[in-house]
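During the reporting period, we have paired protein sequences with backbone structure tokens. One record among many follows, to show the layout:
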Amino acid sequence: MAQPEPTTWVCRVPVTSVWTHPDKVREVDAQGVADQPDINKWREAMNRQETKDLTESNRLQTQLLYGEPVLIEETDGTWAKIIAPWQPTHKDERGYPGWVPLAHLKEISSVTDRSYARVTADKAQLWTRDHRPVAQLPFNSLLPVIDAGETHIHVHTPDGDAYLKAHHVQLVPAPDQIPSGSAQAIVGEAERFLGLQYFWGGMSSFGYDCSGFSHHMLKANGLYISRDAGDQSKEGAEIDRLDSDVWKAGDLLFFAYEEGKGELHHVGIYCGNGLMIHSPTSGKAIEIIRLEGTVYDKELCAVRRFTQEETT
């Protein structure tokens, strides 16, 4: 008797938000939970107070990218309680937990022993064989490769077989085997997103939050860290926060209320020369700032290093 083909549940939309619970969704969030969500329209629909509420009311946890696998724990009507294995967290040793619309997920055949195409462009268009557009994929999306040509990469997707332009991707052996980049490469990657609007819970090039930004800039350079700033601040090598002369580009800087003694609330990437690039807060965009004389200068609570070249 033939064995059933193994399957995997994956995200079937370019990006979906992972919610604390379905009852956290407001009317103004309709574009975020639509069958084909649109983050830009969702952001535009919110006024200043609604944007602030999204940040402060524990509504969103994180986001999933197109093709990202999930474990489904249970379903409740049109919602699924999931675990995101590619996003480490102290909340669950298996991955990041939360709820997503069931319509944003799809069960597809599992693939093994395949290399992956990692999107290196800000966004990359996914195409059918006859050159019809399928979806616009965010930076760092990862899809199994069926065949790699000189101009196009044939990939296995929730929409069936599709194609990405070769110059928009990097071929990697596996999702957890992205080649290591240098400290300067982390900063250079981050600078590509200058001006991108902050988005609470954001894990995509449609909008990052502070720790989503640090997570993905390091992941793009083969460094795998936790999803949230609190967890990130306990990983890597501890660097003397009081001696800025020993800080290196690519280090992560962490900040806490009460002049560094209270609750940790922010993370940025050190650029060298007293500068930091970060995704600051709702209503603002990714920027480079000089730390000296800012509130961050007073709130610095930890410096962590993840690049091997500087830890040896």
